[in-house]
Amino acid sequence: MTEPTRSVLHIVAHQDDDLYFMNPDLVRSLQDGDRITTVIVTAGEGDGVNADTDDPQRAALTPDFARYSTERGCGLRSAYARMATGDRDHPWRREPVDLVPGFAAERFTLADHEVNLYFLQLREQAPTERSTRTGLHDLWEGALRTQPTLPVHGCTVGQVQHVGRDQLIAALTALLGHVRPTTVRTMDPDPEHDGGRAEFVCSDHADHTSTTQFALAALARYREGGHNPVVEHYRAYANRFWGYNLDSAAVTEKAEYLATYSGLDAPARCPHGTCHTCGDRQLGPNPLRSTHMMSAASRYSPTTNWLRLGPGGRLNAFAVLAGRLAFWTETGPASGEWKGPFVLGDGWIAPTLAVTGLPGGPAQLVGLRRQNVVGGGVTVDVVHTVQDPGGNGFNGWQTLENPDWTQGDGRRQREVGVPSAAVDAAGRLHVFVRTFDQGIACRRREAEGTWLPWENLGGSFVQDAGCALTTERGTVELYVPGKNTVWRWHQTAPGGPFQLDDTLRTGRPATGGVTAVDSGDGRTCLYFREAGTGQVMAYRRHADGRWPGSGAGLGGHGGTGAVAALWAPERGAREAFLAHRGSRGRLVTSLPDRDKEVSGTHWRESGEMFAQAPAMAHDATGALVVAVIGTDGRLHTRRQLSPTAGSPLGPWRS
């Protein structure tokens, strides 16, 4: 059997986090035969009562923390077995594994498959009533020196272990070294607050955040050995605030595996012989009652502009690998051969970059940098770098601070949104981010290099997934999805102030990003996914400046994330060059037909599973190139066979 080139590691807090928040990506990786490893950090013992949370009699039941943790673990193994083999009762091999001196975990390996589950079993609860958070949170913050484990029934690691902060980081680092993942999936390190509450209320579970902090600390150590995996972060409870991004088929499939996890299809006796009642009965009889089912969204909404024609007529591709800037470059104009990745810089950069620049000139990149401070705190600032004139390197990150910097509250700073950026015709750079108040802030750099202060553009309840573009008139426009429509800011003249357009009214956008392209004649065309269906929608501005009352549905094979788009001259919104991540996590494209009279989209799926969102650009000859970053951590491209309308895409190259 050929060894899989994709190794995917999930690091989660609880036994159901990956099923709720990372599916369907998880099940697709299992179905593709990838090497899969999942680490569950806590025991997930909760209140110790394995009964429906809506059951009025559950308060009378006696807590049994070890039993509940046992039954959650059994449910998770049943769900994994069903996802990977179709049989929930497929056998597992169970064994203890020493991670670092003084700390052992229990490993379950699915028979005849490269699927491993590691249960670290740190207790959720803090050992003192004075704690206001969880034990894992206090361990990360330094309020606890150690946190005890909770052995489950039949555990091959039967003794209670007392695990220190550095010991847990070292254990995760050791697991990274053993697994050698090409992609790491974990949770949201900086979850947003509930914008509908007057007081500060974090939207997420403290264990999700703390587990991610430990994962990032381990990744920072692991990359010192030259390892640079893709890192993806998934939103959790905050998904309930925004338009759901999974279609009905994905939700139904997701619910089936949650039903197995909760034990709804369990036999009378546990086939694994580990528990009394298979599964997590707190979920109740209907997995669909939870809004967690309805989305699988990235914390750092991926953009689609990370492939561009740069200096010397060479295409450049940009990404973040293990918290560092990575870029690839063609060896020559339209050569089809690539060098890279070149991985640069220190610090930790969030996975999504804004990429812009004058056409054919050096790229300008904007990102988010996370930095740990004394006491377990974190600061996040917006950073900027410029490619050298020859297109071969970068001059280091410069901080643009943060629009909430003056607040002095680290919680506000950590919620800054994924940046969008555009350079206008005069060379002025415009950087946009979502603020803590869920509006938009802008910072500009004049053509001669002077940075102006952050300015508030207004807005409310916007997502951190905007798209900025420069029109053929030299003005800059910004489009940002909100709760019920897409917001638009624009300039009436190059370099002028930004105005909010109150005439754009779209359908509800799904969480995960929008894309806007200049379609000529002063008309912008907007692409996004419809909430609840995942269908690609198009809104093209009329020649008189008005927006249509409704969008055009373009289909698209389901999927999540932003849609890459390039305008095709003399064609319409349905005939643009379009690409996105389909329901199987693979590339789905639609290219204009050779015959101008043939209208509509022509979606075709190809390739293997990839991370984040695709990008498109024209090479030096004018041929279209589509690029993705695979879950194998490599750049994969397809190129038109000729730079003519209707020319098909050639084979994949890696």
Mind explaining what this structure looks like?
By secondary structure, the chain is of the alpha+beta class. It folds into two domains: 7-294, Rossmann fold; 307-339 and 361-373 and 380-639, Neuraminidase (6 Propeller), CATH 2.120.10.10. The protein is built from eight helices and 37 strands. The strands form nine sheets. It has a seven-stranded mixed sheet. Strands 14, 15, 16, 17 and 18 form a five-stranded antiparallel sheet that branches. A hairpin with a 5-residue loop joins strand 28 (524-530) and strand 29 (536-540). The protein is globular and about 70 Å long.
Can you give the mean pLDDT? 94
Structural class: alpha+beta
What is the C-alpha radius of gyration, as a whole number of Å? 25 Å
Q: Indicate the overall shape.
A: globular
Poorly predicted runs of 5 or more residues = none
Instruction: Report the end-to-end length measured between terminal Cα atoms.
Output: 22 Å
Report the total helices.
8
What is the top-level CATH class of the largest domain? Answer: Mainly Beta
The biggest beta sheet, please? 7 strands, mixed
Number of strands: 37
* Annotated CATH architecture of the largest domain: 6 Propeller
Strand content: 25-35%
Query: CATH fold name of the largest domain, please?
Result: Neuraminidase
User: Strand order, biggest sheet?
Assistant: 3-4-5-2-1-8-9
